[in-house]
Structures are given as C-alpha cells and as structure tokens.
C-alpha cells in the first residue's frame, strides 16, 4: 500500500531539475547587472525563461516517451510550487486557482515566443525578452538585451545536447552569464559568452 504513494523516477527527476532551474533563474547577475526586476514578476519571468529552455531541450530529444513524461512532471512541479508560493504570500484560496491557470497560459505564450526567437536570426528573441522579462519596467539598452539573448542561445544549445535521461540527474551545463562591460561612451556592451567545462 505504501508503494501507491511512492514518487515515480520522473517525478523525482523533475523535482531535481526544477530545483536546478530555480537556482539558475535566481542568479544574482540577472538582477544586479541586467536590470531584471527583483520582484515576483521578475523572478517568475526568469524562471519561465529557464523552464522554456528545459522544456525545449526535452522536446528535441529522441527518447520521446521519457522526455514527454519528464516534461509533464516538470510542468506539474513548477505549478505546484506556484500554488504553494501564492498561498504563502497570502493570496486567498479562491484566487489561487485562477492565478495559477493564468501563469500556465502565460508560460505557453512564452514557449512559443522564445522558441521562435531562438530559431530567428534577427532580433525576435531580444523583442520577446524585452516584452516579457522587462514587461513591468523600462526595457534596458539594446546591448543588454543582446547579451541576455546570447546567454539564452548558448543555454539552449547546451541543454539540447543533454540526453533526457541525464537532464534530471546531472548538473546542468549552463553557460557563463555574459558580463556587461561599460564602454567609453558610458553604454553597456555585451561580453563574449565564455565556455564552461
């Protein structure tokens, strides 16, 4: 009977993967250097961005059944956490469900926008980042958006290369967050995306 309540390997893996996404989404450089608002909205946007990267990596895997199961478990882990977080900050029980559904719809929209942006050679990714990550504040200078887009593209390439069976178990190969360097004119220019490992 106790086995009924045992988590599946995908549930346990999704929780580990979700924890890794949360940790990366909270990296101080995003808020300190890139001007991402350190607010509920800003933190949600960075988590959503990293969720998109992980879900995209899983979708591109050859192990379709395992990847699909892990993707669903990861989605469930995120929104269970959103539910819990809303309750902890005092959102009333009757409002939690609709808020979580709104967040889920928002994630689907971000998946479409970021995937299209990653595939595009133009500035679609920068536009999507400006619209979503900086949606509650003034968009940062273009070089900052370009640097964040460079990080996103590098992270997407790295996660695409990790097999589904390893994605939830291994330390994720995040790229270094590109440093922003002040130029002589006082504007910020993106640094290169250094390799890791």
What does the model show?
With 197 residues, the protein is mainly α. It has one domain (8-190). 64% of the residues lie in helices and 3% in strands. The protein has 8 helices and 2 strands. The protein has helices spanning 9-25, 28-32, 40-59, 64-88, 93-119, 124-132, 142-160, 164-167, and strands spanning 180-182, 188-190. The chain has a two-stranded antiparallel ribbon with strand order 1-2. A hairpin with a 5-residue loop joins strand 1 and strand 2. The longest helix is centred in the middle third of the chain and has 27 residues, at 93-119.
The count of DSSP E runs of length 2 or more, i.e. the number of strands, is 2
Sketch the major β-sheet: 2 strands, antiparallel
How many domains in all? 1
General form: globular
**Secondary-structure content class:** mainly alpha
Name some characteristics of this structure.
197 residues; mainly alpha; 3% strand; disordered N terminus
List the helices and strands and how they pair.
Elements (H helix, E strand, L loop, with lengths): L8 H17 L2 H5 L7 H20 L4 H25 L4 H27 L4 H9 L9 H19 L3 H4 L12 E3 L5 E3 L7
Helix pairs in contact: 1-3, 1-4, 3-4, 3-5, 3-7, 4-5, 5-6, 6-7
